């Protein structure tokens, strides 16, 4: 066997290397599990309407990869569609009704609205 400078602590180096490998595997597993759960956590934090589905898609993305990207995009998808303000709509309707009444009053009495006289 070849001599090297740390030959006297060779058994300890083997144990340190083995421990480093186990630590690396544990950290890698923790990172993978945290990444798999990330889309579901983001969806829950954003009160996404399909949080459970995003979470499942994120976990399925752990072995596939493609589903994980889809779940991440889905978690950030904005479902907040502003509803029209009924006050603004009613004000516009009132204004348009007033315009129609004004136009009807300008029309000479007894005349009929113009009809399309084209061929059918």
UniProtKB/TrEMBL annotation:
InterPro entries: UCP028770. This is Inner membrane protein YiaW. It comes from the Bacteria. Keywords: Membrane, Transmembrane, Transmembrane helix. The chain crosses the membrane at residues 12-40, 52-77. It holds the Pfam family DUF3302.
């Amino acid at each position: 066997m070849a001599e090297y400078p740390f030959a006297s602590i060779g058994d300890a180096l083997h144990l340190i290397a083995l421990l480093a490998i186990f630590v690396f595997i544990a950290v890698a597993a923790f990172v993978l599990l945290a990444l798999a759960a990330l889309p579901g956590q983001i969806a829950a934090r954003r009160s996404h309407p399909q949080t459970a589905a995003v979470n499942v898609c994120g976990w399925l993305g752990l072995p596939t990869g493609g589903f994980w990207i889809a779940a991440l995009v889905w978690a950030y998808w904005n479902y907040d569609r502003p509803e029209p303000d009924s006050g603004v709509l009613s004000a516009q309707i009132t204004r348009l009704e007033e315009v129609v009444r004004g136009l009807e009053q300008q029309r000479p009495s007894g005349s009929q609205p113009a009809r399309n006289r084209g061929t059918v």
